[in-house]
Amino acid sequence: MKKVNLKWSGKTVRSLFLILALSITIFLCFRSIDRWILVPSLQYGSFHYPPESNLPFFRNGEVEMGITNQFGIRETKFEKTTSCHYLLLGDSQTFGSGIFLKDRFSEILNAETECQWFNVSVPGYTLENEFSMYKKIEGTFSFQKLYLVVYGNDVYETGDTPDYLHFTKRQKWYWELLAFLLPEYTRSLWKRAYFQTIQVRMAEELKRISTKEIPSSKNVPQTNIGQKIPPNYTSFKTLYSISPNYFYESLNVNTVSNHNFNRWKQVLFRLMEEVTKKQIQLTIIYIPLDVEFDSNRFEIYKEIGFPMDPNWLTGDSELVSELNQLATQLDVPIIDLRKTFRKEKDLLQPEDIHFNEKANRLIADTIKKSL
To answer: Which key words are in the record (predicted)?
Structure first.
C-alpha cells in the first residue's frame, strides 16, 4: 500500500495561521465594538398599560377602576398646584399591586406632603424598563428629585429569566450568529422584542377582562368571620419549579449573578448620567425581599427547597453591600427599608410577595422622615 504523505508545506501552515489570526482579530474587533461603542448607547425598550384608558385594578377580588395617561401610567387622584415635583421609578411594589390606589405609598405622600409625587411604575418592570420610561417622559413635565426604588429581585429580573430564555430559544440561527459576535447588542434587540411580547400579552389580557362582566365589590364572595383557610403557597412552589435559585440569583450578586449585576450597574450609571446633566437629585430606596425581614416566610421558602442564607434576615446580602458602596461612590442618598421592616410583622399580602397597606404606610412614613 502506498504511504500517504501528510506533511504540510510551510506555505500552507502560514496560510492557516494567517486565517486563524484574521478570524481572531475580526472576532475581537466585533467584541470591542459591542463593549465600547454599542453598550453605552443601548436602547432597552419598555411596556405599559393602554394609554388614556379606564381599566380595572383588583384587590382580593374587589374592583377599582383607574385611568391611565398618555404614557400608559395610572394617574393619581391628587392634582396640586405646587413647584415641588418628585418622580418615582419602580416595579409592582412601587405601583401598589393588590391594594387600592389611596393606600399605595405614593398616594399617601401626595396626600400628606407639600409635593406632587409622580409614580410611573408598572408591574413587571426592570431597571431597563424604568430607564426607558424615564427617557420617554423626560421633558414632558419638570421634577426636582428622582426616587429610584430598587426591589430585592431587580438583578435577577435583569438577567436571563425563564420566560426570557423561552423567548430566545425561538430565535433564528442568524440571530445566534450575531449574538456570538455582538452579544450585548443582540441581547438588547431581543430584550426589546421580548418586552413587546409582554405589551401584546398585557393588551390581550386586558381585552379579555373587559369583555367579561366585572362584579361589583358587593358581589365578591366574602370569607366567613373566623374562617381560616390554610395557605398552600402554590405560587412559591411554582417559582421553585422554574427558578430554584431565585433568592441566590437575586441577592448573591458577587458569587452567583455578577454578570447580571454588571448589566444592572451599566443601566444605573446611564440613569445617573442623565439626571446629573439635568441637575436632578437622585435618591435610591431599597425595598427588601421578604427573606430579608420575615422569618416565617424564610422558613416557608426553606421548607419548599430554596437554598437560603440565614444572614439575609439579620445582616447584609451581597446586593445590599454593593448598593451601599455604589451610593457612596455616586454620592447618592439611600433609604434602606430593611431597618423599618425588621421591626414589624404582617407586611405582606396572603400567599403573595407584594406589600399590604401596612407596609405601604411604613414606606411613606420612612420617606417623609428623609425629606
So the answer is: Hydrolase
Q: What radius of gyration, in Å, describes the C-alpha atoms of the chain?
A: 24
Residue 38: Cβ within 10 Å count: 16
Please name which of 277, 284, 366, 278 lies closest in space to residue 326, comparing C-alpha atoms.
284
What is the Cα–Cα distance from 122 to 48, expressed in whole angstroms?
Answer: 7
Q: Which residues lie closer than 8 Å to 302 by C-beta, 6 or more apart?
A: 308
293-352-68 Cα angle (round to 5): 110
- C-alpha cell recorded at residue 259: 454578570
Orientation of helix 127-137 relative to helix 258-277, angle to 10°: 20
Q: What is the arithmetic mean of pLDDT over 325-341?
A: 97
Check if the beta carbon of residue 294 is closer than 8 Å to that of residue 304.
no
Query: What pLDDT is stored for residue 189 in this prediction?
Result: 93
DSSP readout, 164-217? Answer: HHHHHTTS-HHHHHHHHHSHHHHHHHHHHHHHHHHHHHHHHHHHHHHHSPPPPG
Beta bridge partners of 26: none
CB 96 within 8 A of CB 104: yes
Angstrom distances, CA of residue 256 to CA of 103, 306, 354: 36, 15, 25
* pLDDT for the residue 16: 84
For residues 53 and 68, is the Cβ–Cβ distance under 8 A?
yes
Task: Look at domain 54-212+234-370 and name its CATH class.
Answer: alpha beta
* Structural domain spans, the chain: 13-41, 54-212+234-370
The pTM score is: 0.89
Q: What is the mean pLDDT of the chain?
A: 90
pLDDT, position 5: 55
Provide the pairing of β-strand 281-287 with 334-336: parallel
**Cell 403573595 belongs to which residue?**
352
